[in-house]
Amino acid sequence: MKTDIEQLSPTSKKISIEIEPDEVDRKIDQAYKEIQKRAKIKGFRPGRAPIKLLERYYGKQVIEDVTKELINESFPKALQDSELFPLNFPILEKGTLEKGKSFRYSAVMEVRPEIELGEYRGIEVKKEKVHITEEDVDKRLEEIRKAHGRLTSVESDRPVKEDDYVILEYAAFSGGQPLEDIKASNFMVRVGSGDFHPEFEKALIGAKKGEEKAIHVDFEQEYYHSQLAGKSIDFQVKISDIKEMELPELNDDFARRLDAEFDSFEALRARVKEMMIQQETQRVEREAKSRLIEKIAEGIELPLPSSLVESEILSGIESVRQDLMRSGSSLEKAGLSEEKLREEFRPSAEKKVKQSLILTEIAKKENITVTEEDLEEAFQDLAKTTGQEVEPLRRYYEARGLIDSMRQRLLEQKTLNYLMEHANIIEDETSATEQGANSKQEETA
Predict the structure, then answer these.
(1) Residue 131 buriedness (CB in 10 A; 0-12 / 13-18 / 19+)
(2) Cα 99 from Cα 63, distance rounded (Å)
């Protein structure tokens, strides 16, 4: 077997493979012998039909089968010998298979581009100081309190006020014409949240249960829903119900109701603070790593394989689609199109692919690998996070071909850890909370 490699572009190669006539003849003869054993041709006992007759009956099938067999046997070996690792399914160009002649075929594939790495050790990177205040803990406890609140209907005849949860029916009109897709019943809006639109929510204040009213909203050009963006819309609204949130008291009983392991509110508070410190430490580490790889990548010009970028874009679109489906919506109902999402996801997809390629190249240079122990530990962590057993999780990943992508993620994580260990880390004494406060003060000034 002979192979020849041609570089078509920085991310594309063509491998041409030639199989010698002797091997071609051997495979064809072998195929006819197998057919001869089981062929039932009138006038001949099994195994006695002449090859010339078999060629007339089965010639086309033999050529197809032998062609497929030769490619299946030779192609993986050619890739291994040439140290080529396709990123997409190769496009085959097959020659004609004939007895007594060499069989030639070629395959075009996307490959990882060659990367000229700059300096990646000793890079200066800022890392925030982890600092959780008692005020931060109070805010988190208040969030937990609200999460365990109970919505109850307002019994009195009082009108809607700020922070009420209003259950309503609405229909939308543009230029007097109804918008068929912009209507809902039993729809809940928290007044003042801005989740629907500030002007719409503000107009609900003062309305009473059972009341019908007209609300006009001029939507901004950048409004997320494409059917409403930049339009003047008239809504016909009926208030079905008004609810308010009843919040539990933050005391020992509340702590015990959350989890029996808490014997007091102070025990709950201590655990919340501990978890916040842990989460903040992970966030600070994650963002420092992000800044580090961005610094390393900014000086590297790199052609990106289109198949990897496309895969990232499709993954992002599918994630949005699944999120909408879980909430009972869809791309169409949300006024989103795949074309628009592709445009939005492309910059981040290209950035992610570039960084992944660079991390993989650094891992190769530094002999960083993912061991079976690393993989087992990752499944153990995933099992703890999801509350599932390790073996069913592993079987799920294996059945769906997800092991390689998990290995790649682990490889990138290990490489980032290596880079952080060899980075020049400058601790930023200003915490994230303090940075946000300072930023707001500067804006006010």
Answers:
(1) middle
(2) 10
Instruction: Please name the residues in contact with 14: beta carbons below 8 A apart, sequence gap of 6 or more.
Output: 5, 6, 8, 106, 107, 108, 109
Measured CA to CA, the distance from residue 255 to residue 336 in angstroms comes to 43
Residue 33 binned pLDDT confidence (cut-offs 50, 70, 90): confident
What is the 3-state secondary structure of 284-316? HHHHHHHHHHHHHHHCCCCCCCHHHHHHHHHHH
Residue ranges, comma separated, of all CATH 1.10.3120.10 domains in the chain are: 124-129+275-444
- 203: number of Cβ within 10 Å: 19
- Name the CATH superfamily housing domain 124-129+275-444: Trigger factor, C-terminal domain (1.10.3120.10)
DSSP label of 176:
T
Burial per residue of 76-108, b for 16 or more beta-carbon CB atoms within 10 angstroms, e otherwise? eebbeeeebebbbebeeeebebeeeeebbbbbb
As a whole number of angstroms, the longest Cα–Cα distance in the chain is 103
pLDDT at residue 441, rounded to an integer: 45
| DSSP three-state, residue 130 | coil
Residues of the chain with CATH 3.30.70.1050: 2-110
Two tokens at 88? 């997409």
Cα(396)–Cα(407) distance, rounded to whole angstroms? 15
Architecture of domain 150-246: Roll (3.10)
Please give the distance of CA 145 from its chain centroid, rounded to a whole number.
32
For residue 242, what are the CA distances in angstroms to 199, 228, 239, 285, 348?
18, 26, 8, 44, 42
pLDDT digits (tens, 9 = 90+) for 122-138: 999 999 999 999 999 99
CA distance 266 to 269: 5
Architecture of the 2-110 domain: 2-Layer Sandwich (3.30)
Give, for 361, the enclosing helix (H) or strand (E).
Answer: helix 338-365
Compute the distance between CA of residue 431 and CA of residue 151 in angstroms, rounded to an integer: 36
Whether pTM > 0.90 for this model: the answer is no
**Distance (Å, whole) CA 411 – CA 276:** 28
